[in-house]
Specification:
The complex is a heterotetramer, with 2 copies of chain A and 2 copies of chain B. Chain A is α/β, with parallel strands linked by helices. Helices cover 33% and strands 22% of the residues of chain A. The radius of gyration of chain A is 20 Å and the shape is globular. Classes of the chains: A alpha/beta, B alpha+beta. Chains A, C: GO terms for molecular function: nucleotidyltransferase activity; sulfotransferase activity; thiosulfate-cyanide sulfurtransferase activity; ubiquitin-like modifier activating enzyme activity.
């Protein structure tokens, strides 16, 4: 091994043997936002063999405050994040093979990418995609590392099929109406703290030191100075539909996916959640009002507007995104607000 | 009595990090209902619960002196 | 404020008011290695008013595995780290004023830089410089944030003069013969985790939310899955020579500094610690042997060699660095091994 | 008896994270000597000590059931 990795091989749980393993492995990184760009930089610097980055978005000015790798030039060029991340990673380490895939991650589009990878790292911004990753991880027996952050809060959990409970055991259902980075903000240190947890467990899995993998679900709040790792042994459910004895992988079916349709003859996309939600429109309206959105409401719907983008949200979770025919863009806007 | 720890924004809503409340031999669901009512906390049904730093579900029975943490999952990234 | 900081101002403990404060403040960052480059990137992305970066070293290939900002091109150009960090920071955020100072940080050279700064962030690699920072922080009443990491271990503690104990209260003396990144290795996630703690407290201090500052000394080990925050209220000593009732700022005196001398007529620098140390040469020799150094020893000294650099270490802590007349370079090599 | 937690590389030297040992009414210095002798730990004099997650010095007196953590300071960066 070259001098480049000398400080990493000096760390005895990795060593020269571990470095050889790292350089022979392939990681699938889903998302290239805050968690994604930082994970991409880490894996590249660590000398991963191959890195596949999937993202549907492009670099915007508001990303620069917390998303590593990206520069003002990427914003001016409106580069897709996956491509911008790839370019910066190659300036850092030309030995790493980086593949950039610009697409919306769904059960259908992600499944082929699971072939041959050693590890999947979650850097998405919504629970729907995470539940898809969770099912694909179980189906293909590939570990994945959940990570998420909002405000000064973050959490991480490593799922190893056949060993740990899965995210479906822990959450049971997709949580409703949480804060997102677009409604509650986000600070860079929260991102870094989540990535530190993901990256450490990624190294353990890549060097096959499974005993060292964090045996619990870690949560922290860097502003309120809280930290806890919750043991999860008891959470594993034998009847879990994702990881139990008779799995059906429910999140791989079309009925559990968010649907988007371009409304005929209008510059509008309708976004429909998998199952009707019961949104508390009044609370959502006041949260969004506090987050810089212009909000109008009546008992049946909210109309919210920001930066020239207008969206109408119904209490069953359905939404109309005005001014676009781009279904992926509409889903991005929807999930930024509703998680 | 049991100790209840509020993580993240729940701490701000309640106004403190920790409270000591009745709850011995209750299940988690009952404690959540009581806490929701007493402190005006919404959405506790989708908040994760740890009892003495171990995962717990709504049916978990509490004992005297237990520490219950309510941890709201987040989705950003 | 521009769209650039929108997700940071959405975070209510910062808000627009906090952002204005951040953009009016000046931070002194001492060190531009692993902790330094990551802190520089964070402060730049967060929109600090002015950032002064002090470092004595240049970018090497073995830095790339854990030091943010730097690229292969910086290694080829052997750029000083402070200058390389400045260039990358300006690609990220042209609004921030970045000052790069290439020098060895000592009591004498650092003191003038404390004038007018709001906060000092520690990104050094040795306790001697930290104790100098600690004394200057008390003398000039400026908060500073200690951070350090080796292997998978890291720690952070925020010192606010007049409020918290200082590092001298906690450590009493400079700890002897610990592991350094050059002897125990270092993994990127340990760096990120320390920086997450430093960065969060930096934001709190910059927006003047002092009540939120982490009230303790946090330590973690990401491989062994340990985390603890130790309360420190009881550690404050009224007779502490750095922060007590009659401070003498002992680490600002010349007798408490490491001395370097070019040996007359030889291509060798002698490095002498402030007070004689009692090194366990046998243990040090076997540690260094395990870390890739070629070691020869007799009961009085160790001769160690790596990458063409040779150093002779005596049990009282004195060392001869062969093949150089550069006193700063000699001190860098010495502190890399002996902390 | 008191519980002793070993942080970082101390855990590897001792071979476990936690041990339960005699120590009631001892001071920290005496506990350090005993632990150093029993487990072959070197350099404990420059290791930080927390008793029940609070800073302690060599003179701090221990009580039955206390948890003592030994935390080696690191200097890298």
């Amino acid at each position: 091994m070259s001098e480049r990795y000398s400080r990493q091989t000096l760390f005895s749980p990795i060593g020269e043997e571990g470095q050889k393993k790292i350089s022979s492995k392939h990681v699938l990184l889903i998302g290239a936002g805050a968690l994604g760009s930082a994970n991409a930089e880490f894996l590249t610097r660590a000398g991963i063999g191959k890195l596949t980055i999937v993202d549907r978005d492009y670099v915007e000015e508001s990303n620069l405050q917390r998303q590593q790798l990206y520069t003002e030039k990427d914003v001016l060029e409106k580069l897709p994040k996956a491509e911008a991340a790839k370019r910066h990673c190659q300036d850092i380490n030309g030995e790493v093979e980086v593949e950039a895939i610009i697409m919306d991650g769904t059960a259908l589009s992600l499944e082929p990418l699971f072939a041959g990878v050693s590890l999947v790292i979650d850097a998405t911004d919504n629970f729907e995609t995470r539940m898809v990753i969770n099912d694909l991880s179980q189906k293909h027996r590939i570990p994945w590392i959940y990570g998420a952050c909002v405000g000064s809060v973050g959490m991480s959990f490593t799922i190893i099929p056949g060993v740990t409970p899965c995210l479906n055991c822990l959450l049971r259902s997709i949580p409703i109406q949480g804060m997102t980075c677009d409604t509650g903000g986000i600070i860079f240190p929260a991102v870094q703290m989540v990535v530190a947890h993901q990256a450490a467990d990624a190294l353990k899995i890549l060097v096959e030191d499974y005993d060292a993998v964090r045996p619990g679900f870690s949560t922290f709040d860097l502003w309120r100075n809280q930290y806890q790792t919750m043991k999860v042994g008891r959470a594993k459910k034998s009847d879990c539909l994702s990881c139990g004895e008779a799995p059906t992988y429910p999140f791989l079916t079309l009925e559990n996916a968010t649907k988007t349709t371009v409304l005929c003859g209008r510059d509008t996309v309708q976004v429909r959640p998998p199952a009707p939600r019961k949104l508390q429109l009044e609370k959502l309206g006041s949260d969004l009002g506090g987050s810089g959105f212009t909000v109008k409401s009546n008992p049946f719907l909210l109309s919210v507007e920001k930066d020239g983008e207008r969206m109408v949200i119904f209490s069953d979770g359905r939404a109309l995104i005005h001014g676009t025919k781009d279904m992926v863009h509409a889903k991005v806007l929807y999930q930024r607000i509703l998680g | 009595m049991v100790n209840v720890l509020f993580f993240a924004h729940l701490k701000d809503v309640v106004g403190k990090e920790e409270v000591s409340v009745e709850g011995n031999e209750w299940n988690v669901a009952r404690l959540k209902e009581k806490i929701a009512a007493d402190y005006g906390l919404e959405g506790l049904e989708s908040v994760m619960t740890a009892v003495n730093e171990e995962f717990a579900d709504d049916e978990t029975i509490l004992s005297e002196g237990d520490t219950i943490a309510f941890i709201p999952p987040v989705s950003g990234g």
